[in-house]
Amino acid sequence: MGGKNKQRTKGNLRPSNSGRAAELLAKEQGTVPGFIGFGTSQSDLGYVPAIQGAEEIDSLVDSDFRMVLRKLSKKDVTTKLKAMQEFGTMCTERDTEVVKGVLPYWPRIFCKISLDHDRRVREATQQAFEKLILKVKKHLAPYLKSLMGYWLMAQCDTYTPAACAAKDAFEAAFPPSKQPEAIAFCKDEITSVLQDHLIKETPGTLSDPQTVPEEEREAKFYRVVTCSLLALKKLLCLLPDNELDSLEEKFKSLLSQNKFWKYGKHSIPQIRSAYFELVSALCQRIPQLMKEEASKVSPSVLLSIDDSDPIVCPALWEAVLYTLTTIEDCWLHVNAKKSVFPKLSSVVREGGRGLATVIYPYLLPFISKLPQTITDPKLDFFKNFLTSVVAGLSTERIKTSFSECSAVISAFFECLRFIMQQNLGEEEIEEMLVNDQLIPFIDVVLKDPRLQDGQLFNHLAETLSSWEAKVDVEKDDKTAHSLDKVLLNFWKRLSEICVEKINEPEADVKSVSGVSNLLQVLQKPKSSLKSNKKKVGKVRFADELPESNKENEKCVSSEGENSEGSELITEPSLTHNCSDLISPLRKKPLEDLVCKLAMMSINYVNERKSEQHLRFLSTLLSSFSSTQVFKMLLGDEKQSIVKAKPLEIARLAQKNPAVQFLYQKLIGWLNEDPRKDADFLVDILYSALRCCDNNMERKYVLDDLIEGDLKWNSILQVIEKACSSSDKHALVTPWLKGEILGEKLVTLSDHLCNKDLESLVSSESYFSERWALLSLVLSQHVKNDYLIGEVYVERIIVKLHETLSKAKELSEAENNDSSVSFICDVAYNYFSSAEGCLLMPSSEDLLLTLFQLCAQSKEKTHLPDFLVCKLKNTWLSGVNLLIHQTGNKYKQSTFLCLSALWLKNQVQSSPLDIKSLQVLLSAVDDLLNTLLESEDTNLLGVYIGSVMPSNSEWEKMRQSLPMQWLHRPLLEGRLSLNYECFKTDFKEQDTKKLPSHLCTSALLSKMILVALKKEVVLENNELEKIIAELLYSLQWYEELDNPPIFLTGFCEMLQKMNITYDNLCGLGNTSGLLQLLFNRSMENGTLWSLIIAKLILSRSVSSDEVKRHYRRKEGFFPLTEGNMHTIQSLCPFLSKEDKKEFIAQCIPPLLAWTKEDLCSTNGGFGHLAIFNSCLQTRSIDDGELLHGILKILISWKKDHEDIFLFSCNLSEVSPEILGVNIEIIRFLSLFLKYCSSPLAESEWDFIMCSMLAWLETTNENHALYSVPLVQLFACVSCDLACELSAFFDSATLDTIGNLPVNLISEWKEFFSQGIHSLLLPLLVTVTESEDTSETSFQNAMLKPMCETLTYIPKDQLLSQKLPSRLVAGQKTNLPEYLQTLLNTLAPLLLHRARPVQIAVYHMLYKLMPELPQYDQDNLKSYGDEEEEPALSPPAALMSLLSTQEDLLENVLGCIPVGQIVTIKPLSEDFCYVLGYLLTWKLILTFFKAASSQRQPAREGTQQGEWERKKQAPSGGA
Q: pTM to 2 decimals?
């Protein structure tokens, strides 16, 4: 047992495990091993075969396989399923020798588990079996006999996937040529297994009643019986002929069992179906045996003929036919007239009970096999049979199912023709077939349109054609004579029923329609009926089969060959000549019938104006248009055409009855009441036109008709008919292309487009019909050509374009009622249908106008929303047509070129507001997304290039941007200027219109955003250029102080549209962008320089990336404005080493400049500006260097004192000198802030004297503050004064020790006094201006000036001599100078600028402690000391407080106490609240300063009035 892994010793002749297993099994060859009972002990191996030597076999199986085989014996479905799947995998993966060891065990397992109740297990078993076969191959042979019976059953499994898997396994084991041989080898074992299942087994024997539920037992039994029956059929089909005899005894034994015959009446349909399939196979393969069992076969099959189960029916009818064919005396064993035919009649009368497509194809083979003895008397039999078939047609199911209706009709005609053929010469039967069957059958169908879908008329035509052909072939034969009589009788009776249907005043619509359809089909007897036929199952009898086919058609398939969904049969079409020829036997009676019906119809039309008969006449004439019919329709009426008609028309009418009928009858009918569905009258018109000899005659007639006889709606219908049929179009092509129609349509378009100018009011339908006509002639194409002449198409489009161009001149209300909507519909249809046609110039102009109307805002076009939507759809369809033209024809298009130029002009020249720009961008987005659909990937790039401005155009737009953006960079010292460039201001422009640069950059950014999403490659660095211009626009906006709302809205719009720097850079290659920005910064400076700083600050660009561009410091010199601004912008991001290098480049030139060069950019001004920018970043800690620069400036003063603006008139000073003074002053301020080393006395004198002199200049030139450089000069002068004031104010004993001896006293006695004596009056003067906004550039100097005034000492404040300002009636105890100071400063607490409010507060705060003493001095003068003294704060403050309370009441009056209110900074309300709170703080300071002994008295005197006011701060806050 052990030693699995031991090596075999030399000379060991014992066979291998698999070999011994095969040998053991060979000893028991021919037996089917049974299972040992399953025990509960672990050593009980239930999978072991009960054969000799079993005790050794367990050792032959691999341990893994042993485990899987044990699992397969479990009851749990999931366990078995997984085990079987694992078994299949192991068979694939393990070595062949290992797998062969399983073979002795496999038959038992397979035979049991292939019948498992769970279908998944059965499928998995067959799949695993296939893998086993592929592995062991021919080694399976010894086990075939024990497997084959169950294997055949598995191939017939009712679960299709399991059956397919079993078939796949069978084909893997045996190729088709070897399969009969394999079956023959195991035939006896197969037959035994299957017979046992059919005869011996029961639900109780197949499954354990104690463990398996009854329902499951029965289901398994029924499945096993079904599979066994089908497996027997398969055995018969596959078995070679020479092997059949050896099985005859076994089948005789089976057929002798009554249990077998009972399966034909079994309650389970699957069993009955399998039974009948087996009967068919037995009849086919062992006919002699079936003849012997005729007494059992015949009743079993024929008496089941009414079984209407859909599963059973196909197999049953096959069995019926095989029984009739195989057993000639089958009718001896059943009563045909009492048992079989009544059942058949019942099924047929009921329409096959839902199985007409299955049953009815078998009816003809069935009756053809009936012996005459059974059908006598033939007349009654066939009459009853056909009557039953016709009755089945009346069932509701047949009427509603096309396939079933077709099956019934087809069977009826097949049987009718067969019976007629078999009984020609027997007049009674012939008359019965025509008079009692065919004609009533046609009558039934004529009354019900649902039955007309069943191809009855085509079958009738085919039947007549077959009879006519036989008459022609056998002219003098008796058969021909009989058929001739049949045909005459048929036409006579058909004429009667047709006349009956038509000859009624109120003819039934369905019947009339049926008659017209019937006549149309009969006119074309060679109709392609067969091409419309569904494929039907064909049954061939064994004795009819050629020998070569017998082997392949031994069994008739039961898998739905007769089903409804079969393929169509395609047969060669008949020749044109045959299809047009009508047999003489049909031509005359058909023409007579048509003439009779036409005459009857015209009479009803003339006498009763019957529309139903007129419609019928139209249908007749469409199929039977001839001068003979029209002549008959005219009757005896004389020609009555108006004499005014042209000569050609008069002659034509005289010659041609059809033309005469057209003028005398048809025109009157067309012009009666307008009918929406009068197209049948137009059909009559075309029928008449067909009777003309040539196209020119037709053109003459139609040209004459449209000149006055035909209304527009009739013309529309005539052209619609021409478009619907190539035959009709061919008739009227010369007329459609002709001048008369073309000119009339051009006139119509002019009339329609100008209808708004007319006073006549017409109905909507009046115009809509005419617009529909225009749309039709423009949109319909035949072979890529226009319906009418191209010249007229172009003229019509020109009219539409002219009207559309005037739409902007109308109001929205007028546009609502205008032609624009109709023009949109016409143009849309034109563009949508013009595929393959090159757009003509006029249509491209129309397309451009449509686009322009959609790309402009409603305020400009005055179009309502619904029209804008229509316009959009229309121009998009036009562009779509344009770009999909073959051969790059769009390159010849003017639309793309003109639309690009128009867009360029819109954003550069036309002032746009935000709404207009949004509409434009939306239209461009739609346009570009459409262009992306073009096969030419370069198209979009070329289009963007067409819109792209040139460099000079960009520069012009940049220069046109308002220059207020410079205010902040100048004030903050980020840029330096020495010339005036403030030319444009928002106040000079429309504050709602966007600058052209913003519009252009937004448009192009939107365009490249669309292009980049589709990875379109742009040429000439257009991507970098557009992004650079967008950054320029955004930087311009960002630098503005308090930008207008419409500019903020513009930026928000860009964000919503995802037009951002990050998005644009993320989609494309922008490696050259930074270089481009650097080049422009070096060339132009200004905003370009600030853009680089912004990118670095926002971390969009790293410092290292920028550093590559300024590595060579010498490249920035000699200085230009661009170089200077670039360095200034980079300063905050430069390293100390880089700054030192730049400073090193600047210092030598500062020493060498002449007077003229001091003020130039490449002179003192520029280099000092760079030095200041470096100093501003606090990166210069070299005191010696700073002192050196200061000495240079002192030397400048000595050498060129006239450039220092000391006490001079700035209106006469050049901007260059102003610029250099600003930089000098800025340096001195930075010097004081960052230089820690002590200064010499001469240096202090230079700084302080210069400061005071510059302040005097500032004071004397306040009228020039509107000039930006003067304003900047004032700011930096005040900054310097503020720095000095702060320095001396914060001086400590330590710092004073380092100063010159008299410097502090000089500062206090002279310089400080001088500063405040200049600035306080200046504050009063400046605050009296109209513009009080803190954010106004003209008030920029308020902040440094007011900050300086906060340092004013109290004694200097009190000593200030301001112009007297006293208020009449104002109660005061203060001296005049003090009251003037209060009256001057207090109102400034309400100023709109916060610096003024804060500075005034600080100054008044210093005065408050001085005021109470004047109240004490004056109280002593009161005589009556017993009276309570009446004291109050200064009247100026009280008056101001009262004003402030009124203002705040409006702002905060409705807000409850305690609620937090947010007030917008810099707003007017903010200033009111701030001033109010500061005023209260001053009042409280005043009380605090009063002497303690007087304070209670003061408070008491004010108790009434003041109580409310004291609460105000808390409420306001």
A: 0.66
